[in-house]
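User: Please fill in residues for this 731-position structure.
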C-alpha cells in the first residue's frame, strides 16, 4: 500500500485498500527506527534462527501491537453502530419493492420476510457526532477515537466459512490467521512470551476452534497461543514439581548443545532451528505466564474501571485487562473472543434480538471502553491498534411474513461493520457506507474484508503485497496485473522454471463512434468508459475515434457532460472527480496534453492542473488531435479524452488498431452487421458494443498484443489453473 507523508487522508483517491489506509492514517506517522532501536539491539543475539526475532516493518507506523476483539456470531449493525431510522418506518413490512435491492439478496427477499426496526434509541456522541445505540453508554465516551468501516463484504453467510474469512482471509481452512502474518512480519518484542496470544470466552470456544488463530501453511512458531485466564495459563507448560529451576536449566542447556551439534553441518534446517527456539521460549514462559494472569496486584480503581466487580462484565473485563498487560509485556498480537459457537452466549440473534443484544452488549461495553481508556492513560493507545470485528452483519428483516413476539435477524455477508482505534487511526473517520436499511453496501462503496486485512497490516507497518511466504513446493502459476514493462520482466523471470503466467497489462482502449450511432447513447457510454475512477482504470477509454459525419455533434455534447464534473476532495459532497494517484501521474498527464497541443490539438475544456495541494487534474477534452500525438499511442490513466475523426469503416478500424496494446475497445453503431465486422476486426481481447462498461464477473477478462495474455474470470479463467492430462489405457 502507498503512503503519502503529511497529506490529508482524503486529499486523493487510489485503490480501495489505499483509501482505507489513508482514511485511518491521519496526518502522517512517526518513524519507528529510533523507538525500536534499543529493542532490536537487545534482540540481536537471538540470531536469524529465531523466528520471533523483532523486525521493522516496511512502512513507518506508530502501532507496534494489535488487539483484535472478535464478537462470535454476527453483531447486528443496525442495533449497535448504524442508525437506520428507515427501518422503524418499515417495521413489520417487506422491502422487496426497493429498486436498490439486487443480486443474491433480491433472491432471498423474494421469500416472505418482515423488516425489524431497532428497539434501541440512538444518539449522536462526542465531538464527531457519531450515532451510537443506547447499548454502548461507556463506549460513547471513547467514540472520538474510533474510525468505522461500514458495508464490509465477505464471501459466505455461514458462520464457519465467514469466521475463517474474517480471521484468516480465506473462507476455507488451512490459511494463516492475520495474527500469524503479523508475527511472521514483525516478530515479537518480548522473547519470554509468544508474539501471538489468544484469550477466548471462558464459556467455550468460537466456531472452528483453534483453526481461527492457526498458522496455516506458515511455520508452527507463528500460530496463536491460547492463554487461559484462570488456572494454568498455558497447557503443558508447567515443569514437574520435583524439578528445580537450576536442574531444568541444565537439562535445557544440554538439549540445546546436542541440537546445535546436530544442526551445524546442515544448510537447510529451519524446522530444527524453530524447534530449538521453541524449547527456549517454553522455558522462559514458565515464569512469565503465571505472573501475567495474576491480577491481584491491579489497583481497585482499575478493577472497577473494567467491571471486574460486576458478574455481568467480569468475564470479558478480565480478558481486556489481560490484553492490556500483554501489550505491556511486548506481545505483538492479541485476539480476544467474546461469544461461543451457538446458544445464548453467542451474538447469533435469530430471535429476541432486543433481549439478546442487551445481554451481549452489556457484557462487553464497559470492558472495551475501559481498555481504550486505560491504554490511553498509560500512553499505550498510540502504539496499539485496537480492532472490533465480527464474522458478519445481520439482515434488517426476519424470514417470516409475521414478526412474532420476539423477532430476530438473519445472517448478512454484505453489511459487516467494524471499527478501529489507536496507532495512526484517525478518530472520527469513516470508510464505506451501507444503504438506508443496513442491508448491504452502497453501490460504488463496496469494501471487501481482504481490504480491511490489508489496512490492518498497513497500520502495523506491513505492506500486504510484500508479505509473502512460499509453500507447497513448486509455484504453479504467476498472475500479474500492472504495467507492460513490469509484466515483461516477470515473464522473463518465469522462464527459468517454465512457470505458467497470465498477464493483464497496460491498455490504450479506443472508443469508436460510427456515423450511424445513437450519439446521445454514445456520449453516455463515453462518460462511463472514460470517467470511471477518474480515468484511472486499465479498461478506461483512452482515445476517441469519431466519424466525421457526427464528430461535431458528439464533441459538443461530450464537452458539455465533461464540464459538469466538479474537481475536489473525497470529503467534499459536491465533488464528482477526485485526484490522481500521485504527483508523477499528474506530470505524465500534463506532458501528454502539452505534446498533443504542440502538434495542433485544441483544448475544448480543462487542460491545466489547478496546482496547490493534492494531485488534481480536471476533466479535459482535446479536439482535432493529430495521428502523431503521443496521447493516441500511450496510456493516459487520467480524465483526458482526445478526439480524432475518420471517414470510412476501414479507417475507423485501422485507427483503433494503431497501438501496441489490445486490452479493451468500445464500438457504437446501430448496425448489427457492422458491429460484428468491427468487433472481429478490432485487435482487442474485449470489445464493448454500445456499452461503456464491460467488466462483467462472468466474462473472460484479459487482452492481447502487449496488453498481456491469459484470462481471468469465466470458464476460461479456471482453465488457466488446470493441467490437461491424456491417459491411454489398454485392457
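Assistant: Residues filled in for all 731 positions:
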Amino acid at each position: 500500500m502507498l503512503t503519502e507523508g503529511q497529506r490529508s487522508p482524503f486529499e486523493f483517491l487510489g485503490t480501495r485498500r489505499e483509501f482505507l489506509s489513508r482514511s485511518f492514517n491521519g496526518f502522517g506517522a512517526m518513524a519507528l527506527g529510533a523507538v525500536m532501536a534499543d529493542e532490536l539491539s537487545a534482540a540481536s543475539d537471538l540470531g536469524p534462527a529465531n523466528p520471533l526475532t523483532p523486525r521493522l516493518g516496511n512502512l513507518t507506523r506508530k502501532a507496534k501491537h494489535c488487539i483484535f476483539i472478535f464478537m462470535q456470531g454476527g453483531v447486528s449493525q443496525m442495533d449497535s453502530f448504524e442508525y437506520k431510522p428507515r427501518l422503524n418506518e418499515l417495521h413489520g413490512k417487506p422491502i422487496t419493492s426497493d429498486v436498490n435491492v439486487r443480486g443474491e439478496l433480491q433472491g432471498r427477499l423474494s421469500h416472505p420476510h418482515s423488516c425489524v426496526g431497532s428497539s434501541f434509541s440512538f444518539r449522536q456522541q462526542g465531538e464527531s457526532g457519531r450515532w451510537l445505540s443506547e447499548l454502548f453508554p461507556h463506549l460513547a465516551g471513547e467514540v472520538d477515537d474510533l474510525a468505522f468501516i461500514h458495508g464490509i463484504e465477505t464471501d459466505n453467510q455461514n458462520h464457519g466459512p465467514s469466521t475463517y474469512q474474517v480471521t484468516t482471509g480465506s473462507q476455507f481452512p488451512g490459511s494463516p490467521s492475520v495474527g500469524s502474518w503479523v508475527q511472521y512480519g514483525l516478530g515479537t518484542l518480548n522473547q519470554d512470551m509468544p508474539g501471538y496470544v489468544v484469550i477466548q470466552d471462558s464459556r467455550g470456544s468460537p466456531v472452528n476452534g483453534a483453526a481461527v488463530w492457526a498458522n496455516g501453511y506458515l511455520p508452527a512458531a507463528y500460530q496463536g497461543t491460547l492463554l487461559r485466564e484462570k488456572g494454568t495459563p498455558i497447557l503443558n507448560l508447567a515443569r514437574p514439581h520435583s524439578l528445580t529451576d537450576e536442574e531444568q536449566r541444565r537439562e535445557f542447556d544440554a538439549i540445546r548443545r546436542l541440537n546445535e551439534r546436530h544442526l551445524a553441518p546442515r544448510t537447510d534446517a529451519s524446522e530444527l532451528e524453530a524447534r530449538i527456539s521453541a524449547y527456549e521460549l517454553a522455558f522462559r514462559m514458565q515464569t512469565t505466564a503465571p505472573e501475567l494472569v495474576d491480577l491481584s496486584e491491579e489497583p481497585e480503581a482499575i478493577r472497577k474501571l473494567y467491571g471486574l466487580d460486576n458478574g455481568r462484565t467480569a468475564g470479558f473485563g478480565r480478558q481486556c485487562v489481560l490484553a492490556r498487560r500483554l501489550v505491556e509485556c511486548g506481545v505483538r498480537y492479541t485476539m480476544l473472543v467474546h461469544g461461543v459457537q451457538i446458544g445464548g452466549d453467542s451474538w447469533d440473534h435469530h430471535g429476541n434480538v432486543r433481549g439478546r443484544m442487551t445481554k451481549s452488549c452489556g457484557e462487553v461495553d464497559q470492558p472495551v471502553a475501559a481498555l481504550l481508556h486505560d491504554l490511553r492513560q498509560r500512553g499505550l493507545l498510540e502504539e496499539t491498534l485496537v480492532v472490533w470485528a465480527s464474522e458478519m452483519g445481520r439482515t434488517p428483516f426476519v424470514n417470516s411474513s409475521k414478526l412474532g413476539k420476539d423477532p430476530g435477524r438473519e445472517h448478512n455477508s454484505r453489511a459487516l461493520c467494524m471499527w478501529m482505534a489507536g496507532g495512526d487511526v484517525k478518530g472520527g473517520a469513516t470508510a464505506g457506507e451501507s444503504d438506508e436499511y443496513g442491508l448491504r453496501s452502497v453501490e460504488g462503496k463496496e469494501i471487501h474484508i481482504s481490504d480491511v486485512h490489508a489496512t490492518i497490516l498497513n497500520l502495523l507497518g506491513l505492506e500486504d503485497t510484500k508479505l509473502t511466504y512460499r509453500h507447497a513446493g513448486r509455484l504453479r502459476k504467476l498472475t500479474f496485473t500492472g504495467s507492460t514493462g513490469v509484466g515483461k520482466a516477470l515473464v522473463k523471470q518465469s522462464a527459468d522454471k517454465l512457470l505458467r503466467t497470465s498477464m493483464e497489462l497496460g491498455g490504450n482502449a479506443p472508443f469508436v463512434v460510427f456515423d450511424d450511432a445513437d450519439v446521445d447513447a454514445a456520449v453516455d457510454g463515453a462518460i462511463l468508459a472514460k470517467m470511471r475512477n477518474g480515468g484511472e482504470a486499465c479498461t478506461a477509454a483512452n482515445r476517441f475515434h469519431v466519424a466525421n459525419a457526427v464528430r461535431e455533434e458528439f464533441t459538443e455534447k461530450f464537452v458539455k457532460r465533461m464540464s459538469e464534473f466538479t474537481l475536489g476532495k473525497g470529503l467534499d459532497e459536491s465533488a464528482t472527480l477526485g485526484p490522481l494517484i500521485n504527483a508523477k501521474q499528474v506530470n505524465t498527464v500534463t506532458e501528454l496534453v502539452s505534446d498533443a497541443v504542440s502538434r495542433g490539438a485544441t483544448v475544448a475544456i480543462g487542460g491545466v492542473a489547478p496546482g496547490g495541494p493534492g494531485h488534481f487534474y480536471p476533466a479535459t477534452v482535446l479536439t482535432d488531435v493529430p495521428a502523431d500525438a503521443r496521447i493516441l499511442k500511450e496510456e493516459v490513466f487520467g480524465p483526458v479524452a482526445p478526439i480524432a475523426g475518420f471517414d470510412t469503416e476501414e479507417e475507423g478500424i485501422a485507427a483503433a488498431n494503431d497501438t501496441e496494446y489490445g486490452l479493451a475497445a468500445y464500438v457504437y453503431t446501430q448496425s448489427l452487421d457492422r458491429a460484428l465486422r468491427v468487433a472481429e476486426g478490432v485487435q482487442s481481447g474485449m470489445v464493448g458494443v454500445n456499452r461503456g462498461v464491460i467488466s462483467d464477473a462472468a466474462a473472460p477478462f484479459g487482452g492481447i498484443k502487449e496488453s498481456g495474455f491469459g484470462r481471468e474470470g469465466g470458464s476460461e479463467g479456471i482453465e488457466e489453473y488446470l493441467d490437461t492430462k491424456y491417459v491411454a489405457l489398454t485392457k
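For context: The radius of gyration is 29 Å.
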